[in-house]
Amino acid sequence: MIVSSVSVPLVGLVGTGVLGNLDDAIYLAAVAVAAQVFGILFVGLNFLRMGTTGITAQAHGSLARNAGASTAIRESLGEAVIIAIALGALIILLQVPIRNAAFGVIGAEPEVTRYAYQYFDIRIWSAPATLFNFVALGWLLGMQNGRAPLAITLAINLTNVVLDLWFVLGLGLKVRGVAAGAVLAEFAGAAVATGLLVRELRRYPGSWAGTRLLDLQSYRALLKINGNLFIRTLALMFTFAFVTVQGARLGTVFLAANTLLMNFQWLTAYALDGIANAAEALVGKAVGARDKDGMLRAVRRTLVWSLGFAVLFSLVFWLAGPAIVRTLTSLPEVRATAVQYLPWLIVLPLISVWSFFYDGVYVGATLSREMRVVMTSTAFLVFLPVWFVTRDLGNHGLWLAFTAFMTLRGLGMHLWFNRLKDTLITPPTIPAASRLT
């Protein structure tokens, strides 16, 4: 799962490097703006992965004592796939109002917006495949299968890297090339995911007949369950979008530099999410099996690994950060600005590790309400007020607000989990999935 997760921001680094070495920062800035829009769209719907993982892992954990667990496993996949395809189609239908509203709010320079439109109009067609892949990754992870998600993620990301290099450097398509590569890569991943889902289902004999795929009431329940995760993720993406918007208002150079630096944060986040994903699967299985000792053991072990990787990333960014910046862009102004704000990214892995780790624990234990409360509270009661007070510091104030947000988010999740850990193993009379409501 670590290898799978870390391959995602590495693709972002390749795209950044390809565009950052063109003759103008405007291409990198345009993709940064457009990618942020898709971050809100797609990551905002990442509840399809997280909710599916928690429910599936708990159903898997109950296989030994629950005769209906095999049906529940199929139901968690089927319902999530149908919702993913429907939401993907809806995004395509609403693409024009989404595009106009999103770029109107961001307010980037006209030339940046023009190229961002090019990216958006192509990338939007990946929506159904992207959301389907979310479900596939979540379900396979919930089934305690780490190899299949790796295969899917590598199929997406390696395809994306090859196409980025070919379309941008070979064919000279620039922004359009990066967007087209992303679309084709998502559909390649969906094809791989379909084959792996079929193979995994064969390992657990059962029938679709007992599932409630035609029962609209069951879909309302699933949407209610995932509503907390949806709101939580929107609050998270608000903070990232806010950093992008404020960077755009400071100017193209600041926008490009912040985009480059945010790749450091994404690299850390995705690598640590690999461990958090393992925590989701292991904690969820232990909760489904009502194994309290197993749950606490999974929490302790994944925390140790998370802290170790966080220290490693801080050291790498401290020792090699300037060299990485020079590799990613040849533009002198962008380089100088990025190096000026690099110290924030050196410190952030040691701070953000706690929230990434507890995200995995909370998803596995299906504590979605608690995730929503912590995230929205720190986004709107910490991030925004700190930025407002320090906004005269410019870009330093922006990174200070982001650091404060990550600090209080991790602390809040740590304190709340310590209060709840003795009550997470529910009595046999209460369905595991009901904790999500």
Features:
437 residues; disordered C terminus
What's this, in brief?
Helix content is 83%, strand content 0%. It is an all-alpha fold and 437 residues long.
What Rg is obtained from the alpha carbons, in whole angstroms? 21 Å
What's the shape? globular
* Mean of pLDDT: 82
Low-confidence stretches: 427-437
Treating each run of at least 4 consecutive H or I residues as one helix, how many helices? 15
* H/E topology pattern: HHHHHHHHHHHHHHH
Percent of residues in helices = over 70%
* Largest beta-sheet details: none
SS-based structural class? mainly alpha
Strand content: under 5%
Number of domains: 1
What is the CA–CA distance across the termini? 28 Å
Give the tally of β-strands.
Answer: 0
Description:
This protein has 437 residues and is mostly helical. The chain has one domain (2-436). 83% of the residues lie in helices and 0% in strands. The chain is built from 15 helices and no strands. α1 packs parallel to α8, α1 (2-20) packs antiparallel against α11 (252-288) and α3 (47-61) packs antiparallel against α4 (69-93). The longest helix is centred in the middle third of the chain and has 37 residues, at 252-288. The model is unreliable at 427-437 (pLDDT under 50).
Question: What is the element layout, followed by pairings?
Answer:
Blueprint: H1 2-20, H2 26-44, H3 47-61, H4 69-93, H5 95-106, H6 110-123, H7 127-142, H8 147-170, H9 174-202, H10 216-250, H11 252-288, H12 292-328, H13 332-364, H14 368-390, H15 395-420
